[in-house]
Design goal:
Blueprint lengths: L1 H15 L2 H12 L20 H22 L3 H30 L2 H14 L13
Keywords: Membrane, Transmembrane, Transmembrane helix
């Protein structure tokens, strides 16, 4: 598992130097209905009624990403190769995320047993009103 995380970090280093690509990808992923989470909520895809408008917005950002990559590449062939590498990385990261999610999900009993330890590390404050800033 740690080898896969290190590989993911090594791959993502290629894209960190261009914050515009990261921002546009983040917007595209936020507009995705299945955003890489293995959650059992049935209504997760029904947060917004007009899914077609979300799809249109996502399409606009995908087109924007393509045009940006095309403008930064020496030719269309290089842009296609870069976009292909980018999509492969995103699929790899999504697959890794699902494996990590499954692994953490399989440790429910261990996490439950750690609860008292976690609570002892951060004791409750008796006067919680002091914490609320108005």
């Amino acid at each position: 598992m740690s080898e896969r995380l290190l590989k993911r970090n090594k791959i993502i280093e290629q894209y960190i130097f261009d914050p515009i690509i990261l921002k546009v990808i983040l917007i595209i992923l936020v507009l995705s209905s299945g955003n890489c989470r293995n959650i059992d909520y049935i209504d997760m895809n029904q947060i917004f009624d007009d899914s077609l408008s979300i799809f249109r917005a996502q399409n606009i950002y995908v087109e924007l990403l393509w045009k940006y990559i095309l403008s930064r590449s020496p030719g269309e062939k290089h842009a296609v190769k870069f976009l292909n590498k980018l999509m492969m990385f995103l699929l790899y990261a999504q697959n890794l995320h699902l494996h990590l999610d499954y692994y953490v999900h399989s440790l429910k009993d261990e996490i439950k047993r750690m609860e008292p330890i976690m609570q002892s590390m951060w004791p409750r404050i008796d006067n919680e009103e002091d914490m609320n800033i108005t």
